[in-house]
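Shall we go through a protein fold together, starting from nothing but its sequence? Please make up or recall a protein chain and show it to me in full. Go ahead whenever you are ready, and we will take it from there.
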Amino acid sequence: MLVVVLIIGILAAVALPQYKKSVEKSKAMQAIAMLKSVVNAQRRYFLANGKYAEHFDELDITIPWAGHTLFHKTIEETLSNDDWALQLIGGDSGSVRVGRLTGPYRGTGFYVFFNYTGASSYKSNVLYCLEAKSTSSYRVIWKGAQGEYCNKLFKGTLITPTNAKPDSFLISDAAW
């Protein structure tokens, strides 16, 4: 009987972390799907207006999130739910980002730049994963080890933009 209990304990110790990672990947994929919807709506808005929307209500989609909790401190246009904040920057070179507000992976997220013109390693129209470390920029901070979320869960490649802390990981180099 003791051997059976020991085997069950070992299996549980191995399976529980994998289960937690699977649950987080599922939640993240839902957030990425919302991000993709907003990215596509921004592209349609740009085609019609020559610039990116400044506000969610200018887009041709309905976003079911009603909160306004910030993830990135300086991005005012924010919608949130209990777990995630969706943030929008419009204008000539906009971006969309979604950040984790709660749970063991708080301070992580995903983003896409449009027409990025900055002098760094960032590319336009690709998906990035973020492990937020800067208290000056982000309301919630990732406290895990570098790469634990973006690299281990999503196979992202660390990028180091000039004049920035290495907190971004390229998920897909293909147009997103």
In short: The chain has one domain: 2-172.
